[in-house]
Specification:
128 residues; mainly beta; seven-stranded mixed sheet; 0% helix
Length: 128
Amino acid sequence: QVQLVESGGGLVQAGASLRLSCAASGLTFTDYAMGWFRRAPGKERMFVAAISWGGGSTYYADSVKGRFTISRDNANAKNTLYLQMNSLKPEDTAVYYCAARSKYLSGISDMPREYGDWGQGTQVTVSS
């Protein structure tokens, strides 16, 4: 059974940084492209960033490009996905979810429907 567990969220002031982690188990991590999504209060779930199975390709939403960095640790069975978030803004406030994209699909994607497994989410709150 696939499990994705996010951590690292919290309450910070605008301009601060946070690093989210997502520990994956129950899957062959290197079979899966991974992604981060977020849901702000009263809004739909939105794409944030994605990374290929090997980490060589990444893709970002325009709203976070240049501020957020997605990465993954495939070595030594660490099976962990990261999201480094710098220069945080109040509009970044949301619940952040990591997701595993279907291993039967090639490449990376910003489409939530192509991600079959999701974590429970971690809250990020940025005060002004």
